[in-house]
Specification:
Blueprint (H helix, E strand, L loop, with lengths): L2 E14 L7 H10 L6 E4 L2 E11 L2 E10 L5 E4 L4 E4 L10 E8 L4 E6 L6 H11 L1 H4 L4 E6 L4 H7 L1 E12 L11 H9 L3 E7 L11 H10 L6 E10 L6 E4 L6 E7 L8 H15 L1
Antiparallel strand pairs: 1-8, 1-9, 1-14, 2-3, 3-4, 4-7, 5-6, 7-8, 10-11, 10-12, 12-13
Length: 283
């Protein structure tokens, strides 16, 4: 039996909009209630959609697809060494798929990484567009990574921090999460996302326990973290060469092995089972 390796990463869900009442279960129930043939949107030349939404008690397993219209698959024949196009019907599109398991009650989403398929930013946009009729044109949803504990430990190893940068999003509709002065400024400004980079003076170091570094640690440790990205650049104890510690290398994730079907495609039912098994340990 053949297997495929898959990386799945954990994110916190943040939604806001004038008509959004904080009910995350209702958000994904609304996607489920949309007719299957209407669960797709156009983004430039791409078609992006959620053709399958499977309810699992109070959770949901979603299949996301994306593909470019008008692309004909090119087939290689290894017996003849030639290639040929396999023409699709006018209503057919060649797509790639990735999957996500949503736990709305905990505001968590587990996303499968597939190189050529939809990733978190595209998933966010398609959900927003599909739900504008229900929640209005100002409805926004964002997925921010759950940060591993070793991210803070790596920061604490620095003897000198030359640069610290972050990108954070608006936490949620009611701002009832713990939030910082930066996120408060974001709210007062009517913004959705903030970027900040701070550099130390020549030969100096940023504080490891105050200012921007404190914010990075604080938000990374939040029950509902809302850091989209962050990076620390500097020199660690006992080292002379600068080191970069980016948040995207410290996202909570698991690598899983999933059975393939006889035709070589991924067994999605087995993927779903594996992802459900991870929920207890990750969330």
């Amino acid at each position: 039996m053949q297997y495929a390796n898959r990386k799945v990463s954990a994110y916190s869900i943040h939604a806001h909009g004038k008509k959004f009442d904080g009910n995350y279960v209702a958000v994904f129930k609304a996607i489920y209630d949309i007719e299957k043939t209407a669960r797709f949107v156009k983004m430039s030349s791409m078609t992006v959609g959620i053709p399958d939404v499977v309810p699992l008690d109070s959770d949901y397993f979603l299949t996301f697809i994306e593909g470019e219209e008008g692309v004909q698959p090119l087939i290689f024949d290894s017996q003849t060494g030639t290639t040929y196009e396999n023409e699709l019907e006018a209503h057919e599109i060649l797509v790639s798929a990735s999957h996500a398991l949503v736990v709305p009650a905990k505001r968590r989403i587990l996303i499968e990484y597939v190189k050529s398929a939809p990733k978190a930013p595209i998933m966010e946009r398609v959900i927003e567009q599909l739900l504008q009729r229900k929640y209005g044109s100002d409805f926004r949803i964002s997925f921010s990574p759950i940060v591993e504990e070793n991210f803070i430990r790596e920061i604490n190893k620095f003897k000198r921090i030359r640069v610290a940068s972050l990108t954070l999003i608006k936490p949620n509709a009611g701002w009832d999460d713990h939030y910082t002065k930066i996120s408060q400024m974001l709210e007062e400004s009517g913004g959705e996302k903030a970027d900040l980079s701070v550099r130390a003076g020549r030969g100096e170091s940023l504080s490891k326990n105050a200012g921007i570094v404190e914010v990075i640690k604080d938000v990374a440790n939040d029950h509902q973290p809302y850091l989209v990205d962050a990076e620390i650049v500097g020199t660690k104890e006992g080292e002379e060469v600068e080191t970069r510690v980016p948040l995207n290398q410290h996202v909570v994730h698991r690598n899983i092995s999933v059975q393939k079907q006889k035709n070589g495609s991924l067994n999605v039912l087995k993927l779903r089972e594996k992802m459900r098994e991870l929920v207890g340990s990750l969330f």
